[in-house]
Amino acid sequence: MIIITVFSLLSFLLGFILSYTNYIFPIKIDPVINKVNSILPQSQCAQCGYAGCYPYAKAIIEKNEKTDKCIPGGVEVISKINKLLNLNDSIEIEEINIQNTPVVYTTVKIDEKNCVGCSKCASFCPVDAIVGAPSFMHTVVQEFCTGCNICLFHCPTNCIKIIKEDRLC
């Protein structure tokens, strides 16, 4: 009984110290970073060169990173971010450049004959584009796949292949 009382008091004291420290030294969050982050597709695919959408949004605001690195978001995300940041002049230039050039979209396809159903690829897919049950074959829903290729590294049978497709925006 004494041990429970001591741990309860200690937990209460440490919780009070933690909340007081947070009150004295609050974490400052930039609301513009959160707005840019909310525009991004949240696929956490790392195709932009950052670990996820929030680090990319932070780099756009703090390091003046280009706004056209989000491949899954496409022109729509670029224009929304540019409008938010009042970069209206660059919207027209980027849309003209993107619309006139072919863009290589990558997705993946699972060779279903060789799939053993380990479901490792499905557990690591950030957008849940891989469907299937454990011990059964899996397949990729192409319209949801962002082409991040994270699943390639986790497939033990190497039955996942990259599909490249040229499309005009």
TrEMBL record:
Q: Which PROSITE patterns match?
A: 4FE4S (PS51656), 4FE4S_FER_1 (PS00198), 4FE4S_FER_2 (PS51379)
Q: Does the keyword Membrane apply?
A: yes
Q: Where does [4Fe-4S] cluster 1 bind?
A: C45, C48, C53, C70
Cofactor names: [4Fe-4S] cluster
Q: Which residues take part in binding [4Fe-4S] cluster 2?
A: C115, C118, C121, C155
Q: Where is this region: Hydrophobic?
A: 1-22
**Could you state a single Gene Ontology molecular function term?**
electron transfer activity
- As recorded in UniProt, its EC number(s) are 7.-.-.-
One Gene Ontology term from the biological process aspect of the record = electron transport chain
* Residues given in the record as [4Fe-4S] cluster 3 binding sites: C125, C145, C148, C151
Keywords, ordered alphabetically: 4Fe-4S, Cell inner membrane, Cell membrane, Electron transport, Iron, Iron-sulfur, Membrane, Metal-binding, Repeat, Translocase, Transport
- Does the keyword 4Fe-4S belong to this entry? yes
Residue intervals of the 4Fe-4S ferredoxin-type domain = 106-135, 136-165
Q: Where is the 4Fe-4S domain?
A: 28-87
Extract the InterPro entries matched here: 4Fe-4S_dom, 4Fe4S_Fe-S-bd, 4Fe4S_Fe_S_CS, 4Fe4S_Ferredoxin_RnfB, Elect_transpt_cplx_RnfB/RsxB, RnfB/RsxB_Proteobac
| One cellular-component annotation, GO | plasma membrane
Question: Where is the protein found, in the record's own terms?
Answer: Cell inner membrane
Function of the molecule: Part of a membrane-bound complex that couples electron transfer with translocation of ions across the membrane.
- Similarity field: Belongs to the 4Fe4S bacterial-type ferredoxin family. RnfB subfamily.
Q: How does it assemble?
A: The complex is composed of six subunits: RnfA, RnfB, RnfC, RnfD, RnfE and RnfG.
Q: Which HAMAP family match?
A: RsxB_RnfB (MF_00463)
Q: What is this protein called?
A: Ion-translocating oxidoreductase complex subunit B
